[in-house]
Known about the structure:
Layout: H1 3-8, H2 14-24, E1 39-43, H3 46-64, E2 68-72, H4 81-87, E3 93-97, H5 98-106, H6 115-118, E4 139-151, H7 163-166, E5 176-179, H8 185-192, H9 200-204, H10 207-217, E6 224-227, H11 232-238, E7 244-248, H12 249-257, E8 263-279, H13 286-296, H14 299-306, E9 312-313, H15 316-321, H16 340-343, E10 347-348, H17 351-371, E11 377-378
Parallel strand pairs: 1-2, 1-3, 5-6, 5-7, 6-11, 8-10
Antiparallel strand pairs: 3-8, 4-7, 4-8, 4-9
Amino acid sequence: MDNYVKKKFSKLSLLAATKLILLMTIGVEAFAQDGQQPLDILTWGGAYQQSQEKAYFEPFLKAQSIQIKPRTHLTEDGQTIVDRLAVDDSWDIADLSSKDESEACEKGLLRQIKIEEVLLEDEASEDDFLPGAIRKCGIGSVAWSSVIISNRRKFRKRQPKTVKDLFDIGRFPGKRALPKGPKYILEMALMAEGVPASEVYEQLDTVDGEDRAFEILEKLRGHVIWWEQAAEPLKILNDGQAVMALAYSGRAFNEITSQRHPFDIIWDGQIYDVEYWTISKKTDEADAALKFVSFALGTERMAEQARWFPYGPMRKSAVATVGNHALLNVDMKRFIPTTPDHMRKALQLNTDWWKMNEKRLITRFDAWLKDGSSEIEKAEVPNAGSQ
């Protein structure tokens, strides 16, 4: 997940920020139930955690008299999130990426969650969840995505609207700002050629499919500015160095709404990833943890988070009820990845597949770059920050 977005996406006006701080200072401890231990929840901090406070933590305390103790994921040098989970016995619930959920589940760190344990709303069903939401040890909360962003002022005759347009230098001339690695690019290359999202990884798993993806990528040879930090692509776009970029949707929201940049999000061919609610296998508060996850998966609660932060709820009923941003006069359905229109040709990032194939594909991608080194440009973006 894009940590920078979680921490710093919200460059609101001073008045709006002040309102948010005031709303966040409710004395929630007064509602805590006597004798009930607080639920220790690991999450991501920043504006993302603030949206969870408003949508989940404070309402849950009022509804159940169970206090929440949120903590930000912290790791030491060389330590992964899963490494940290393994040595930290104090957490009860963790908000995890698909990659971390899969690895932590495989290592036996997480309690298996059955959907019937947490889906308690009247007439609610498993079918209300979007593809990829229900896993062995986690239930999907929100989705974030990698998308194509275009600068509409760079195109006069026509505007790019599909993933195919990213690879069409003839109709849409200009540089592209792309991540310096095979992930996302190879999937989009195949989708640009008409491969359905459901078949992308099946084809990439074959020699012919992989070769085809690199052949499509060859169309962009000499027309790419490669970025390595998540802050770079939208800066490159805004500086006029590129006309299209592959970037994160949450960052695009801030650039479009707060910074007023003339960017358009192309949702066709988006690649989304999911954040999951998970429960520690070692927790002594399993019943309370299940109550929280059930509460947080409620339609109204999930929609409420999307009113504070531009990630998409993983329930159809929640998506349908998302309205304007809680502080800005902005329709959030324009910016969340999980609306029906945005999901029509969406692909869920297969982190398990990348775990098995990334090293090999990075080697091939680097060799591909080296073959055309005289034509490759590197973005000059001083102090761009890190993801």
